[in-house]
Design a protein that fits this description.
Layout: H1 4-13, H2 24-30, H3 34-45, E1 53-63, E2 66-78, E3 81-86, H4 89-93, E4 117-122, E5 128-131, E6 138-141, E7 148-152, H5 156-170, H6 186-190, E8 201-204, E9 210-213, H7 216-229, E10 241-250, E11 263-271, E12 274-280, E13 300-307, E14 311-316, E15 325-329
Parallel strand pairs: 5-9
Antiparallel strand pairs: 1-2, 1-7, 2-3, 3-4, 5-6, 6-7, 8-9, 10-11, 11-12, 12-13, 14-15
Helix pairs in contact: 1-3
Keywords: Cytoplasm
Domain Nischarin C-terminal PH: 241-347
Subcellular location: Cytoplasm
C-alpha cells in the first residue's frame, strides 16, 4: 500500500504531453487517478505481487532493434523492473520486426477491447544508463540488443527525476558486491592508454549499474562537426555552442488534419553565428559492447543550417508549453553555408 504522498505524486505525473497523440488504450491509462492507477498497475502490469510502483513518466522511446520508429510510451518504474507501456501503433509501424514483438492479440483487433504492448526491462538485467547531452534524453542498456531503449524526454527535469528514482530503487537490490578494485595509477584511472583520450564520466552505482555522463570532449567534437558544416569560415576556438535542444520540426501540409507525422524529431544547435537542425541517432551511440559493426549512419546528420545574420524575424505562438517558434530567414541568393564546393566544381 503506497503512501498518500506517493499516490498523489504519481497521479500528477500521469499527464500525456499535449503535442503528442496516443492510442485509445494509453488515453485510458492517462485518465486513471489515485488508487485506481496503482490497482491498474498491480492488476495488469506488475509481474510479481510484492513489487511497488515508484515512478511514472510519459516519454517518447526508441528501441535499438527499431531505431527509426519513435513511439509514445508510459514508463513505469517499480522496485523490480522498468515497464514501457507502448502505443499499439508501434507494433504495426515496423512490420519486419515481427520477431521482436509476439503478435498474439490479432483476434482482439475488431473488438472494443484495447490492448497495449508492454516491454519489460528487469532491474537485475540492467547494466548501464547513458545520459545524453544536457539531460535531454537517456538510454538504458541490458544484456542484449533487445534490451536497449532510449527515452527521449526532451526535458532535463524529467530526465533528472527519473535517474534519481532509478538510483533509489537500485539501492534496494541485493546484489553480490564487486571484488575489491586494484590500486591504479593516475594515468590508467583517468585516461585510455590506447587513444590518449579522456573517458566519459562514469558513476558506478552500488548495484554495479554504470551511470555514464558525457564529458567536455563530446561538446568539443560537436563543435568541430558544426565547424566542418560551416565550410571552415569560422575560427574554431571562437565557436561556442550556445544551445543544444531536442525539438520537433513542424511540417505544414495544406488541407490535412493535424497528426503526429507532421512533427519531425530534430536536434537544434545554436552557435554564435548559425542555427542548425540535425538528424541525430539517439540509440546507437556509444556503441554497446556486443555491437559487431558500427551503425549504418553517423550520430549527427545535417538537415538544415542558416546564418543568424540572415534571420529576419522570430514568430512566437501564444499557446502554453511546448512553445512553437517560427524562424523567418531572408531569401539570400548567394547562400554559401550549405554549398559543398569541392575541387571538381572548378574543373573542366
Amino acid at each position: 500500500y503506497p503512501s498518500e504522498f506517493l499516490v498523489q505524486k504519481i497521479t500528477e505525473e500521469n499527464q500525456i504531453p499535449v503535442h503528442l497523440h496516443v492510442s485509445v488504450s494509453l488515453q485510458y491509462v492517462a485518465g486513471l487517478k489515485g488508487s485506481a492507477l496503482v490497482e491498474f498497475f498491480h492488476g495488469n502490469i506488475a509481474e510479481v505481487e510484492n513489487e511497488e510502483l515508484r515512478h511514472l513518466m510519459w516519454s517518447s522511446v526508441l528501441f535499438y532493434k527499431a531505431p527509426n520508429v519513435e513511439v509514445m510510451a508510459c514508463v513505469l518504474l517499480s522496485t523490480k523492473a522498468i515497464y514501457f507501456l507502448l502505443d499499439d501503433s508501434f507494433v504495426h509501424a515496423d512490420e519486419h520486426q515481427s520477431d521482436f514483438w509476439n503478435k498474439e492479440s490479432s483476434d482482439c483487433e475488431n473488438s472494443s477491447f484495447h490492448l497495449s504492448c508492454c516491454f519489460v526491462l528487469k532491474l537485475n538485467d540492467l547494466q548501464s544508463v547513458n545520459v545524453g547531452l544536457f539531460d535531454q534524453y537517456f538510454r538504458v542498456t541490458g544484456h542484449s540488443a533487445d534490451h536497449i531503449v532510449t527515452c527521449l524526454t526532451r526535458d532535463s527535469y524529467n530526465t533528472h527525476t527519473f535517474i534519481q528514482q532509478l538510483m533509489a530503487v537500485l539501492s534496494l537490490l541485493a546484489r553480490t558486491p564487486s571484488p575489491e578494485p586494484v590500486d591504479k595509477d593516475f594515468y590508467s584511472e583517468f585516461g585510455s592508454k590506447t587513444t590518449g583520450k579522456m573517458e566519459n564520466y562514469e558513476l558506478i552505482h552500488s548495484s554495479r549499474v554504470k551511470f555514464i555522463y558525457p564529458n567536455e570532449e563530446e561538446i568539443g567534437d560537436l563543435a568541430f562537426l558544426v565547424a566542418e558544416k560551416m565550410d571552415g569560415l569560422t575560427n574554431l576556438p571562437s565557436l561556442n555552442i550556445l544551445l543544444y535542444v531536442l525539438a520537433f520540426q513542424v511540417n505544414h501540409v495544406e488541407g490535412s488534419a493535424q497528426n503526429t507525422s507532421l512533427l519531425q524529431p530534430k536536434t537544434l544547435i545554436l552557435t554564435s553565428s548559425d542555427l542548425f537542425l540535425f538528424d541525430e541517432d539517439y540509440i546507437s551511440y556509444p556503441l554497446p559492447e556486443f555491437a559487431k559493426e558500427p551503425p549504418k549512419r553517423d550520430k549527427y546528420q545535417l538537415a538544415d543550417g542558416r546564418r543568424i545574420r540572415d534571420l529576419d524575424r522570430v514568430l512566437m505562438g501564444y499557446q502554453t508549453y511546448p512553445q512553437a517558434l517560427t524562424f523567418v530567414f531572408d531569401d539570400v541568393q548567394n547562400q554559401d553555408l550549405m554549398q559543398n564546393l569541392t575541387v571538381d566544381h572548378f574543373g573542366e
